[in-house]
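Example (one chain per record):
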Amino acid sequence: MKKIIFLIVLSFFWINHLYANDNFIDQFNDWLTKNGHYGYVNNDEVPKICKEEKRYSHLWYYNKCDQIKSGNTLDIKFYKSSEIPWGKKPNKDTLLYYLFRYLEVENAYDRAGSKGSKNPYKFNTELRDDKISKYIKKHMQKTALLSYLLFEDNKITIDEISPKDRLGILYNNDTQFTSASVGKSIVSYVTGHAICKGYISGVDHRLNDWPVLENTLFYDQKLINLLNMAMGHQKYADFDLKTNEYKKNANANTVEFHLKKGVFKNSKKAKRKYQYTNFLSNLLINYVWFKSEGQFQNLLDEIFVNKAKVKNDVWFLKMNVRTVKANNRNNTILKEYKVRDEDGPLRYSFRASRYDYLRIAKAMLDDWQNDTCVGKYLKKIHKLRIPMNNKWKDDKTSSLNPKSYAGKFYTNYTGMKKRNVMGMNGFGGQHIMIDFDLGRIVVINSMHTDYNWKKIAHSVIKKGK
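Predicted structure:
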């Protein structure tokens, strides 16, 4: 009996320990209360007048409804990591909380991006009412999906968003959500524009003109090797960095840190082969910044404002002194340091709203189909694609179904090897797929990979249904 009581007390302590060590839970509870989501908060702690009075009214403020501290009544599963681990099956409450975290955590970073266009592109819409559209609508009700958009025949034909009684209280048409590794493909698209502006000579350009690359395996290699993640870097990094001296996630430190103080200091290249690594995309976007010679902002505006005509602000995350310090508590080399633009603080991580992701994908489609300079770049990297050498085979998943990698895009999907289809894939189920031949685009934003990717992405691109 004593043992049972001890376990109960221990479990209670552990639950509260998790709450105490999750510094977003108080922010989340405050957000729920201040935004009137009283169905999710501890109602005993909310005065009746604050529930009944119109939010932000004089009487609402007079009764200090904006200062109420409240707990929540949600059934939240807290994970050891800051993200929902792959393979887990989180409930709606857990998804809601982690969505709040995902939206808040990146606000500590600086930004490098563009303001929304004064004349955003307006989509034509003609919604389908068929088996697949009904399936996606039902799928939206029971999975971590935030948004699903299908663009075909030059119009939107499926348009679904998480409902208000699910994740819609936090996510709407204008929510700028993380791209995760979809941002790597957007980095490649920016690189294509830098080439077409003459900042970089082409995909065969030698990386021998940025001093930070000297005495590393990256020096004097061709740009296409960096685009294809085939730099002979596998000794030093796989998905993350191979180190125990500081955080393995490349996004915690600047490019200069990794090259001059970290794992790539005095590194030597091995035989070149595909090795997916986060760091290489950070290296690429910062190299483009360096080569644009003070015109990086103009380059971004040309892409996102003038061409894609985004409605809302879009941006890449940018490290600063605060984020470096916060991410490097266990760094045995250097816990904090000055962060300068010339040291490579830009990250591939990109944020945009749901329709703006589609606007950017449509800009890629237009470039390809109109055979613009950037379209030629996309065709060139597609031609120079390399095998991914996957050890595992799982045609039902977005990362293992494609068999080739083309300049930070996935290609050679099963059943479509003879078609010009390229995809972008990111953590949590972020996914964009473009059929350049048929003009079809699928854009998916998601919290977690618990949806049927093969049915709502691959099959729709392949068959249209």
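Caption: Residues 2-108 form one domain.
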